[in-house]
Amino acid sequence: MFHLLPALLAGLLVYELVHIMTPYIARRFPSKHPSNRSKLWAVGILVAVVVSLLVLASLGLVAFLRSDAGSITVLLAKMAQILEDSRKILPSWLLEHLPADAITFKEQATLWLRTHADELQVVGKEAGRATAHILIGIVIGGMLALRDAVGMDHFKPFARALAGRSSLFGNAFRRVVFAQLRIAAINTFFTAIYLTIVLPLMGVHLPLVKTLITITFVVGLIPVIGNLISNTIIVVVSLSQSLSVAIGSLVYLIVIHKFEYFLNARIVGGQIHASAWELLIAMLCMEAAFGLPGIVAAPIYYAYIKAELRARDLI
Fold first, then answer.
1. Other C-beta atoms lying within 10 Å of the C-beta of residue 144
2. Has residue 122 been placed in a domain?
3. What is the spatial distance between Cα 87 and Cα 104, in angstroms, rounded to a whole number?
4. How big is the CA angle at 296 (ends 181 and 226), to the nearest 5 degrees?
5. Mean per-residue pLDDT for 37-44?
6. Is 176 within the bounds of a domain?
7. Domain count, the chain
8. For residue 229, is it within any domain?
9. What is the spatial distance between Cα 38 and Cα 196, in angstroms, rounded to a whole number?
10. CA proximity to 105, closest of 120, 89, 75, 84
11. Per residue in 241-259, pLDDT tens?
12. Range of the domain at 212
């Protein structure tokens, strides 16, 4: 409701990454005293390394998407040109919903930008605010991970209960998010095989393959919706070769995502002991309440709710 989900996810990502790596540090600096300065320094260095790598990875992704090799602008322009060139091979019922040519496409885009100029200004401000929230979340996550290295556990009742809730929520985040990372990586792997091996062996070479692979991974981190976005882009780009290549791409992607559907249910559902239909209902309800952020947060919060109920032997 307060649009703090980016900060929460960024902080949890740093916190959980540090906690995954901390046992290796603990083995290197064994001590019966939790205030061991060597361990504290080691965890501090680990926090700095994790934060630096995340920031560098984000900057690298942004730089790639702005470069000539991975430019989103170039991709959109290419898609517009492909749609114009494909009017001769597309069925008439589909042509009714497409711009007449690239110039018309640009005019419609310009008109849409003018009509929604005020909204886009708000989006720009929100993007800047979300970036600031992410940075603050990363700092908080690192500070909390560093604090845990001291091993303070003398909590009063309320603080102890709050720590328990936070621990359950952190575990839910770790299970769901890292499972989704695995799924996005697997999906990107099979898509990359299709774009870089299968199609070239058939004599088909799509443009902007690196951009397509990068977008597939990034949007694949968003459950369900991400696949629709990447699939649409790949099919449109495939039209640059022929209608049969586009249909072949669509069939291949459908097969992959049917396989991914069961994989998702097995990986994510197995992590939180939930069926696919449970996750879809949770995502539907959260989307209705909070929009796109609700879809992203739904698996995490649903996993947390089930963990709370399970801890009380209610399910």
1. 18
2. no
3. 13
4. 65
5. 66
6. yes
7. 1
8. yes
9. 48
10. 84
11. 777 887 888 888 877 766 6
12. 153-315
